[in-house]
Design goal:
Six copies of one chain form a homohexamer.
Chain A (H helix, E strand, L loop, with lengths): L11 E15 L5 E9 L2 E7 L4 H6 L5 E11 L2 E11 L19 H12 L5 H18 L15 H19 L5 H10 L4 H4 L10 H23 L6 H11 L16 H23 L25
Parallel strand pairs in A: 3-5
Antiparallel strand pairs in A: 1-2, 1-4, 2-3, 4-5
Helix pairs in contact in A: 2-4, 3-5, 3-7, 4-5, 4-9, 5-8, 5-9, 7-8
């Protein structure tokens, strides 16, 4: 079946999609309508449902899969759906929401294999045990969570994909700069964003949790390390554990970006660079993929609204 | 016996003092000398010990109490000691370093009584138990530690004195603004700087510990709360515990001042103001005390080098 | 009679309200309509008046009281009025605009009594005479003006209410920190925003005056002090008068917030903190009052768009 | 007689100079010495007076003129005096301190003539009367005061010289941009820094006055305008007077530079540019005058430590 | 024939205008409409063309001249056109787009004469030859290009008009400050923005070119100077050429405004001031021209949204 | 022969060293002395030469090689030389200054081989030709110049070493992120700092050249590319050349760091990260090499005075 973004402007269609958001509003004529945001693996698109009955308002809520008939349209340059009719997906039809969520293009097995390889690079015993413990506890979420609500790697599996891209860069740096400590560098990278499994609600309709808002993923990771030590029976005042906490606490590089301490280890400084660089490459590539050679991308918010040019050669 | 700052310029004296710092340097003539910083409860003063022998270098180290003979002198406007002779304090003489450390002027019993009163204001059960647990664990340090290495309340007992001044302001705000939650406000204030018992080495020759530098007192407190819950058997994911952590994590008010999250509770915002205001009053008062009416203080570093005027009336 | 914000969504009503603003716009069909903002003591609400005749446009202007029939509605989450009919309030009906303006919830007599008490704390003769003179001159406005056009205490009586909340905090600080000069502290607080009686037009449809825009309330107060001295016959070059001017000139704390000089008196520094803290508490409390426990407020513009959480306990 | 900066390195000399500063310090050998700063119209130079007796310390104080014998020397790249002997200037000798203070190179009569011409450009009656009144009151100081303690035009007469250079630029702008209001532009320029006659102590050993520190010259000027109106009998609430106050209040261009309001008149904006530009040209020219073609100047503090190149052509 | 901004609100009209922009959008009823922006020498105005056929969409594109019948209307305070009918301008009618572009009000001959005069002030031979060469190469564009896409002097001829206003100020400064080097000052001003002939596409529908975006007009000018030297046969490593490049590279005054080096010549510093001042005067005057005495202008974006007051006298 | 930093504190020695700097100063006793900075490949160390004769001042100048006898000493924690005697190196002795300049530890042949390999990655013909042309022209300097006067890679060969470390990272990124354009990435890296061969004077007593100060190495590279095109006969307006210029112009990442344009190509953004990361690793490693495990480094100026911890494991 066709995906949302494969349909051409003006074309008629009937496909299954996930309702990502459904806001009730009042039209100028005083009647309520529903502002839908539909989603499948090709992306998200808006559509207005005019003159909705109370029953329809209750039926079509965020998180439901629906069979949608309509026409692909454009409003002020942005593609949207002109809804003709819709109904809930029934048993026997593809009604599992996870089928419609955007995912990274790498297989989970490949990411797992890369993670296993990476764990072998951690030679300091305390760090190795703590990292393995936390991976073990968060495994399910680690491979399913996005790396962010918006911005970069904001799709299912984004967290592990981003983490393991960083590991690839780090492996190479270890060979160029032998002075780097592999346990702190690789251990720090694997854990650096793993607090997002607590900070964010999950891959479907991603939201910040209360704990995520009140503590931030950076302090959450430090807490996870402390608790893991207690569970394994490692003294959390060991220098190696303390420095592992430091590496994750400092990885945003600057206080104004939410790190409570500045990097005071070479590895903390480097993780900050790798993290930032991989995020930027991901963000830019995503918009470049939707841009023609010889054109500029739309403004990229997280790059201070810069536009990036796609060369012709 | 006279104190260092009671001796007049040009006066001869013989008193016991603590060696706060002792740096070995080489004079122009190639001979080593010791740059001393002496301390008693009236403050700290420098003195140069010329042509020191190796034995003397080994004998007179930081942390030792000595009987010092000399003359009060002035160098570029700053009082200093012209050393005539010195010897280590002997048994039977006042050789306890704590006798020479600057202390707050309030009695510990009074501070303890104020703390006990304040604890009664915390009505939420989880917060009450956690705060009492941590106070119990850090009690000795809480009443002895300074609130900072430099800047404000940088003297023995400064931590508890600063904390309880803040409690006084908070009690009053609770009566003006009944919408404030007393458990979060008073609990948050009592704990807000208690991580400094770990971040700083103590009242004598105060230094940052490795853990203090690598994690900062803000994250240390959050960790203390988490561990206290585990020891008492409280679920750390309780909203009240989460918000207590938030209040201490956010109390620096801005990320660039080291808070990993911005205040998202009214009480977090208010603690930031009370903390900042009490610190500023303490800093300014300290320099005003050494200033004549009708004059400006010296530049106050932590106020962006501002000078404060002391009115004549 | 019911107030605007007491009517439930979907409910029919007929009440008297004040027209706070009336903008003429053109609909898509080319006909003019009026975008009204109605107000009573419960707050302000929008409503569109379609296909207005020229006569209606002239009749229903800002500042007029009308009898409004309609239905309470919601547009994109914000309550609004679906207008059915309206007519001007007639003689004998409640047609005084001041009846519909939001006011502080404290009685004027209470505020006056608090002010009288506060004046007694000013012991320095020059400051006492100048403050009383200015209070005498601006009394009517002082108890009626808002403290701001938007942001905090933006309601009738807000200026005196804000000022006297600050006085309450200051009284307490005087007992905790005896080094504070009560004449400068209390005198400075009473005058600190009194220039707003000149800077702002009043409590109904509050606007900046030309003098307010061109000089700002901070310089206006300094000028009021200077003129009061001239009228009473006090030498304005007295140190106490000079320092009183300084305290008000410096009370915004930083030059980028409009103070032409930085605080150079302990009291100037403290007034800045009290002012800022009371304003923040007022702003946050106002939005928390409209928020359910367990929810976050909407973004608060003056707190850099932060959202505040309302605890469940 | 030779001037300080005309004497070559290593040369012996005997000349009259003014003692600009005389600090008493203690040498390594324990004996007091005087760190002098001598001044004549060619500039200022340091010199150490070793092993000073108490009598000498009392005799040679700042503000005294002395006959100084010594040798021109260099210390770390900076010229200094190696003192051989000194004595106070006696009656009949050139013992007037004003003879040794650096002055602008233009004759006072010329500046007075330029000022008279400029006053004629002010056509609005209220502004014309107020400006003339203030000039009349401050005339003696206006032609003698420096424009600053340090930085630009920091010499006797600098205030009027700087003001009248600005007038020259403004006259030209009036011909290029006829939309400029000459009364506000010229009146504003003449008054813009005249508060410095109150803010600074004078041309010899220039210091900030208490009023200068506590109010700043910007608010002082606004106050001078208000008082002048009262003395002449002009209503200070006239728009022309209000705008004149605005022009001087806003002339620093940004709040962080001490203006309590931002420029809201074209003339206020322009005065800010002219002021800044004339100050920069003066500062740069002064250091370029001491620089060889093909070389860079020393770092200029007020230009964020930039160095300026002096071309060879 | 009447101009767009000469027509009164509500008046019927039929005039020739240029289509500046034509965006295709979809109305609520699902039908496409064209959002036009029309332009003539009096300014630009919007108008909606409802229910456009595909043919009309293809016909009425940006850059075309049309005969437009309609009624002058207002939408939310902004003037707009209520379109009744339109057709393309035909042969014999005024169909040249350049007739409808806003132009400076000075005659090209006058600007050319001023430029010729200015060139005579450049006495250094290398600079004189390079400036004349570049003027010769870019002459057509220099007198036709705007100085900017938006902001100041954004109209045909704006580049030369802005440049020659700056020259007028500079001539005057040369007489007040004889230390200024006329070749660097005048040569630098003439070239300072001439890279905009490459950076911007032209006077009609002004856009940034790819080279303009990728290099910026500042580096483009430096390159033009280097190439001109090569073509004339001047050694580009001559100090005079190097300093001429510096003056244009540094003329934005600060790195954050796009200058790769800070001003290190007095002339570079001064050009920055003159440039900035003339731009501000132009921007402010343009909005003041549309403002009544006693009113404030609308917010001026490039002045950080400040509003400027137009005095009554 | 021993190197400066191999000699232990207190040890006697006699070795050849280069005089890096020789400042003449006057001692307290009025006699001149020379403040030397000696250098060999192990680093730089100060030493004072008391009571120098005029002949000695003329003899021992910066850039000369001398045989130095003395004792390794310490002054305020910093190692220094207590000079006993010195004489100029004679013919037959190791008197070539380049022998004493700190160099990168990699052989030039290896760097040349890496460069040759890297050039093969550039597949776009214009970029390939221009990069080879410029490498050919600057080859001698490219392998000898430092990458900076101070900060990172500030040693002979530092420019090529830094460039080729960046190439190693880039090669790896090309395999992780196939969307990167190798011609722009590798070509941009090779050229990104090559303007430093013009901006800096060389490896011995490195200073900025006049052209370096006035244009900056970033614009110089753009100019080198333009001239290379002209010499080879490539149209410099080709997109590939324009983008190559952009990549070097934008590589400082932000305008305030001296890039006249912000990165608008993915490769420009990435080069900025690689450059910054390699520089930071080099700076931190250099100070960590002089630090004991378990200690913090001294403050690193270019990291905003941060101190980096050297782990014990």
């Amino acid at each position: 079946m066709a995906q949302l973004f494969e349909i051409k402007n003006g074309e008629q269609f009937g496909i299954f999609v996930l309702i990502k958001a459904a806001d009730i509003r009042t039209a100028r004529n005083g009647k309520p309508f529903i502002a839908f945001r539909f989603q499948d693996r090709s992306g998200s698109m808006d559509g207005m449902f005019w003159s909705a009955t109370e029953e329809e308002v209750n039926l079509y809520q965020a998180g439901k899969v629906v069979f949608l008939r309509g026409k692909r349209d454009t409003y002020q340059g942005t593609p949207q759906v002109k809804i003709e009719s819709m109904r809930l997906a029934e048993a026997g039809e593809p009604d599992d929401p996870t089928l419609y969520v955007e995912k990274v293009k790498v297989k989970r097995e490949d990411l797992e294999a890369e993670l296993d390889d990476a764990l072998l690079l951690i030679t300091e015993a305390n760090i190795a045990r703590v990292v393995r413990k936390i991976i073990h506890q968060t495994q399910e979420d680690f491979f399913v969570h996005p790396a962010a609500k918006r911005l970069h790697h904001a799709m299912a599996g984004g967290l592990s994909f981003h983490t393991l891209s960083m590991v690839k860069i780090a492996r190479n740096l270890l060979s160029i700069y032998p002075q780097l400590n592999p346990s702190l560098l690789i251990g720090g990278i694997i854990l650096h964003d793993i607090g997002k499994t607590v900070e964010l609600s999950g891959a479907i309709s991603t939201e910040y949790t209360l704990k995520g808002k009140m503590m931030g993923h950076i302090v959450i990771i430090s807490e996870m390390i402390d608790r893991a030590c207690s569970e394994i029976g490692i003294d959390p005042e060991n220098e190696s554990i303390l420095l592992l906490k430091h590496v994750v606490l400092a990885h945003h590089g600057k206080m104004e970006f939410g790190s409570p301490v500045l990097p005071q280890l070479l590895e903390a400084e480097i993780i900050h660079y790798i993290d930032d660089m991989d995020a930027k490459i991901n963000m830019i590539t995503e918009v470049l993929d939707k841009t023609e050679p010889g054109e500029f991308t739309s403004q990229i918010f997280a790059l201070d609204r810069r536009q990036i040019y796609k060369p012709k050669f």
